[in-house]
Amino acid sequence: MAGKNWILLGAPGAGKGTQAMRLVETFKLPQISTGDMLREERRLGTDLGKKAGEFMDKGSLVPDEVLIALIAKRLGQPDAGGGFILDGFPRTLGQAEALDRMLADKGRRIDRVIAIEVPAASIVPRITGRRSCPKCGAPYHVQFKKPKVADTCDACGTKLVQRGDDTEAAVVKRLEAYDTMTAPLFAYYQAKGNLKKVDGDGEMDAVWTRVKEAASA
């Protein structure tokens, strides 16, 4: 098996979160999410958190150098010494190059990039069909996880809602933005020989089998 410094890529609605959880459980690696780390650094009031917060409060993108510093700090923790799963980063070619430079300084490298690919025709109904309970947060889906009573939470009886950005038009726009942003990433990692594309369409367990094979190859 290759080393265990991994990146997990996947469009919104591709099932990346579910497969990331399984990778964590199976390979005992920490899942590193820049979004989670940014929120934690802000909560703790660290210098990095304050610096990132200046951009987040204005609705601006956090600069790459701040994100890389954040990741470098996280990878210095003991649980990441044997490998990690980067989730949600890098998103751009510039971030990928900066990540490689940072890892090289530490004598490390990205060993595997697992890209979960699902056609837009499958993703759109996955996302537009999502519903949730505004009171208790329970998730549902009009096709895959229907409530016992239509549009009503099984747990507390509250009327279910759809996120404002889960409309078809919004989903299509998000997918187009993802494709535009990540296309250079695919070419970058393909040239390095560490990209593994996985068919993410179909039953969850079948997708997991393919993801596990890509990780173990």
Structural class: alpha/beta
The low-confidence runs, each spanning 5 or more residues with pLDDT under 50, are none
Spatial order of strands in the largest sheet:
2-3-1-4-7
Overall strand count: 7
The H-and-E topology, N to C, reads as EHEHHHEHEHEEHEH
> How does the major sheet shape up?
5 strands, parallel
Determine the mean pLDDT. Answer: 91
Provide structural commentary:
- The protein has a domain at 5-119 and 181-216: 3-Layer(aba) Sandwich (Rossmann fold), CATH 3.40.50.300.
- The protein starts with a strand and ends with a helix.
- The chain has a five-stranded parallel β-sheet with strand order 2-3-1-4-7, sandwiched between helices. The protein has a two-stranded antiparallel sheet with strand order 5-6.
- The longest helix is centred in the last third of the chain and has 25 residues, at 168-192.
- It has helices at residues 16-27, 34-44, 47-56, 64-75, 93-105, 120-128, 168-192, 204-216, and strands spanning 5-10, 31-33, 84-87, 112-117, 130-132, 139-141, 195-199.
- Helix content is 48%, strand content 14%.
- Strand 5 and strand 6 (139-141) form a beta hairpin.
- With 217 residues, it is an alpha/beta fold.
What structural keywords apply?
alpha/beta, two-stranded antiparallel ribbon, five-stranded parallel beta sheet, Rossmann fold, 14% strand, 7 strands
Brief overview, please?
The protein has a domain at 5-119 and 181-216: Rossmann fold (3-Layer(aba) Sandwich).
